[in-house]
Amino acid sequence: MAGAAQLSVSGKKNMNQTLRTELLAMREKDISTRASLVERGELDDKEYHPEMRLVHEENNNRIKEIIEEFGWPLESEVGEDGSEATWLIVQHAVLEPEFQEECINLLKAAVERSEAKGWYLAYLQDRVLICQGKLQIYGTQHEVKEGLMYPLPTENPAEVNVRRAALDLWSQEEHTEHLQKDYDKIQSNKASHGG
To answer: What is the pTM of this model?
Structure first.
């Protein structure tokens, strides 16, 4: 895969189109599996669905190989969509929190070089902190209580929207509202399928 430089859609040299295509396919499998589970009313916030787990296991194994071979895939190497796909795959590598933590410094270096979006780092950093039982920084991670979405505990919550704005994230309130709509759709689909 690391062979001769290839041309991207925009004509940039050094674009690894093969790797980009693979990353996009991995992302698509994740997204389409989740969408199918939502549509069938089978996505549950309490249990890890076996179909979703299988996709994550396959993606985890492959993304670890990719990062070991290439490092964090940079926008200049796999395009903006390939970079976003890398983030999503790592963000969903919930079966391997140690791997997610290892990726933070790689992603941070990519962000500092303008080779990845800052909001990717916000989501991954928060997920790792919450998994470690710590306060999140950007308020990206939520929980459901009695059908309503709430941000998990956040460091210095009065300043969270300032930190979010610095990374081009919606305000905490807008983000929570968006997640609530997504959650309500999932619950509606479950109800219509007798869940």
So the answer is: 0.87
